[in-house]
Amino acid sequence: MSDKRLYQSVARNILDMIESGAYPPGTRLPGERELAERFGVSRVVIREAEISLEALGRVEIKVGSGVYVRNSGDTIGLVLPSVTPFELTQTRLLFESECAALAASMITDAQVEELEATIQRMESAPHDSADGEGADRDFHLIIAKASGNAANVFFLQTLWRMRTEIDAVKKVYAAVCHEDASHRVNEHAAILDALRARDPLAARAAMRGHFSRLLEALLDASERQAIDEARRNSSANREKYLKSSVAG
Amino acid sequence: MSDKRLYQSVARNILDMIESGAYPPGTRLPGERELAERFGVSRVVIREAEISLEALGRVEIKVGSGVYVRNSGDTIGLVLPSVTPFELTQTRLLFESECAALAASMITDAQVEELEATIQRMESAPHDSADGEGADRDFHLIIAKASGNAANVFFLQTLWRMRTEIDAVKKVYAAVCHEDASHRVNEHAAILDALRARDPLAARAAMRGHFSRLLEALLDASERQAIDEARRNSSANREKYLKSSVAG
DNA sequence: AATAATCAATTGGACGGACCTATTTGTAAG
DNA sequence: CTTACAAATAGGTCCGTCCAATTGATTATT
Lengths: 248, 248
Hints:
Chain A is mainly alpha-helical. Chain A contains nine helices and two strands, in the order H-H-H-E-E-H-H-H-H-H-H.
């Protein structure tokens, strides 16, 4: 209906098929010939659509085998810019705080309950487990949705992709995850309280506090990490130069 | 060195041609037929290569005209969600206001001068011209850069892509562009004053004012547009039913 | 002379069929 | 049960043809 070139409309259809859950990550898409028949287009168009999806990192084409859906998690940094963990956290601070303020005046009772559920999941999940991280993500995502703005949801998702797909970010966040887990539950609870009270100013302040503390924790962690690395390097150097002095 | 599929190796060659400076941004690449002959491959392969480059945002394909090199600085890749003009403007309000507040305490004198230049460009450009729009974009982009955060720059670019690439948004923004131009220059000047004074609160307030007014203008315009459409429909209906009553 | 309508050349878009190579898989021989 | 091989299946590439959009020059009109 809307796309100018045929292959783009086909690519969108395929993307919809994938995102509807019909083809979970790792599964094979139907063959080019079958898709061509199903969409009533030529094989060339199917190939073009799949190539564009491959360029976007959504599928992986294996010759002689088939086209496979990629977990959007294993995309490499091609589409995302390289940002530091601090930049990301600063942007999350300013963006998500405003989302929270907006959400406070729009949130439904059902969404409040969903938020409660994520906090319970975080409490019962072992620290830094996959489910704990999922609950963290859901908490922030629900708030973005509660702001009633599709662009906000999109940016929240993009921010989360940066957190999980950019190596430098992933590393530093992981280092801070252990000691962070306990604070996180409390802070999420404080944010939830403000949202439940439909208080925009309190929600903004609580979210800012959440990320301010995270930013500090990240700075501490990266400092420790830098020290560790320096120590490793210097001990490696010591070894290296001692060795050469023995050899000499 | 050698990519698995032919189109990828061709895409890399084309990219090298572009990045060598042989085809600066805005210029047209040789036609598919010529490239096919030059690389010794079929037109299909050239098309696939160009499509992958288009998906990555490096070139723009215009049917019947040619393939054009895009500014490499432009954001690439991400598939945009469908957002309304109002959602976009609301997100710009909350996001760019915070960027402005950040920028106020980080901006350099050189960046202040760049901002002044964009305002002069807007004053001298005919309303709603391409250059006027470019100056508008540059104004906001410079502020995002002045915030000293690569993630902010990335999101600013993505927001601008939404404004120019989503049909529904483009339409409503265009409708408001004429009467908006005069206000816009004044408001940009007010924002610049706050930045020049390195006053974060004033910068945030000025930016919020800028987008608040824009949001209202958009609402007015869309209301008028809805009324126009309703009028058109009703007159079409009148014609239709008058005709049938005459026929009957 | 300036402007509007028209037409032809160029360019990307799409089709279908043919043939290639890589991978998978089922079956038969060991 | 394992191995070896061969058909079936999958994507990769080419060719030639035709369509549709764009553009610019040509011509007609005012």
